[in-house]
């Protein structure tokens, strides 16, 4: 089968693209390798998505998006694309399970959390080191946790973690936060949150679980090893230091800028019939609202591309 549109990725951008494409009566397939939602699926509280109910969570918004796309006829596939061929008019995607063909492609692969790069980090991921507060906060009920980062996400997640942890320490490499002032104010007012300025984590230690970690003050050069409270016996590190676009698959095929896909305002890449939407493309603001806008534009442009390049 040759689809009109195949969308790679089931986050807000991909699901919105699927909704718009299917509603336009295009034969649409959304391919997602894991769970729907991308980064928003790990967000507990969504306050800035226009019109969303006050109690909206990332997963609840994503569930509604997926249901809406499917209600218009968007088909779904659970597969991981490992190779692409965009050289001909009909695009080919090779997955671990199947091969797919389409007249147009929308890349909505999003981004993945950036790591600190400290020794021991990879080995202890899921064993005391986490990149998702909503996934793992409950494991640290009444314990102490440390949050690495100083941007919006880091501070918001630190605030969320105070619902579970006894104490939350934000470790930031600068002497002031980069988060929006309104978010900073909430953090400074929270009695459970403390700050460790001008500091980075240089090593993470542990066998089966996180046992300690080493921090370094960038101004004084002083290093210190931090252990859990004796009464606790355990603690956690949450890392929020940015994201990396999930675009390695397209390197050398599509124009990239520092890993992000270069598009015009209509989400067009340098390859005719291939569009990109969401956090994986070059843009000034990466939020759910801009991802959904990207998805809508990409789908409308894919429809126009098909109309102009394929005869009925």
From TrEMBL:
NADP as UniProt keyword: yes
Known EC number: 1.8.1.9
Protein source organism: Wansuia hejianensis
PROSITE patterns in the cross-refs: PYRIDINE_REDOX_2 (PS00573)
Protein name per UniProt: Thioredoxin reductase
PANTHER family given in the database record: THIOREDOXIN REDUCTASE 1-RELATED-RELATED
Classification via SUPFAM superfamilies: FAD/NAD(P)-binding domain
Family, per entry: Belongs to the class-II pyridine nucleotide-disulfide oxidoreductase family.
């Amino acid at each position: 089968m040759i689809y009109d549109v195949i969308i790679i990725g089931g986050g807000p951008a991909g699901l919105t693209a699927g909704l718009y494409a299917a509603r336009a009566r295009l034969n649409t397939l959304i391919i997602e390798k894991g769970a729907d939602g991308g980064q928003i699926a790990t967000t507990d509280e969504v306050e800035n998505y226009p019109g969303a109910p006050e109690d909206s969570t990332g997963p609840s918004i994503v569930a509604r998006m997926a249901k809406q796309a499917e209600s218009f006829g968007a088909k779904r596939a659970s597969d991981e694309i490992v190779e692409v061929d965009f050289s001909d008019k009909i695009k080919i995607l090779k997955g671990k399970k199947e091969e797919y063909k389409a007249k147009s492609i929308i890349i909505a692969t999003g981004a993945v959390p950036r790591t600190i790069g400290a020794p021991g980090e990879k080995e202890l991921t899921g064993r005391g080191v986490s990149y998702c507060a909503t996934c793992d906060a409950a494991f640290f009920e009444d314990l102490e946790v440390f949050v690495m980062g100083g941007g919006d996400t880091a501070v918001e997640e630190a605030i969320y973690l105070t619902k579970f942890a006894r104490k939350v320490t934000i470790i930031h490499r600068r002497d002031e936060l980069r988060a929006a002032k309104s978010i900073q104010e909430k953090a400074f007012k929270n009695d459970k949150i403390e700050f460790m300025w001008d500091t980075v984590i240089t090593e993470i230690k542990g066998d089966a679980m996180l046992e300690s970690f080493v921090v370094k003050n960038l101004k004084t050069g002083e290093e210190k090893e931090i252990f859990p409270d004796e009464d606790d016996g355990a603690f956690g590190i949450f890392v929020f230091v940015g994201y990396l676009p999930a675009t390695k698959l397209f390197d050398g095929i599509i124009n990239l800028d520092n890993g992000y896909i270069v598009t015009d305002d209509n989400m067009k890449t340098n390859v005719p019939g291939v569009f990109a939407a969401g956090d994986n493309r070059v843009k000034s603001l990466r939020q759910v609202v801009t991802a959904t806008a990207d998805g809508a534009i990409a789908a409308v442009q894919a429809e126009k591309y098909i109309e102009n390049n394929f005869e009925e």
